[in-house]
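Hi U.,

Before I forget, here's the chain from the pilot set. I'm dumping it here mostly so it's searchable later in email.
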Amino acid sequence: MIADLGLVPVIPSPPDLWASVGITKLIENARTVNEDLQAVIVLNQCQPQQVLTKDAMEILKDFQVPLAKNRLGDRAVYRQSSLYGTTVHDMGARAEPAIREVTDLTEELLGILDGGRPGIEEK
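Structure:
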């Protein structure tokens, strides 16, 4: 594996959490070829106030793959931008919260590649 950083998107739902267990094993196997491979779990389609999201965050803290500080919300604008073949950055003012999420996540990932460490930060 040539990648420097592997992203594991996880929706806070039981099936995604169960699948994440297998992904961690794949990452371990990939590290036999690429010892420097870093990986981070990114919560996607989050609804921060829901109990399931909070439970998923607690469960994922115990995984061998760290959980990103930043996460992506469950926003219609993500689906709309895909429909139009654009990014949320092209969707105007209504996409500001999504743009902020993407920008914050991007900065975190670039920081990881620059030697930083991923991990949960309570918001």
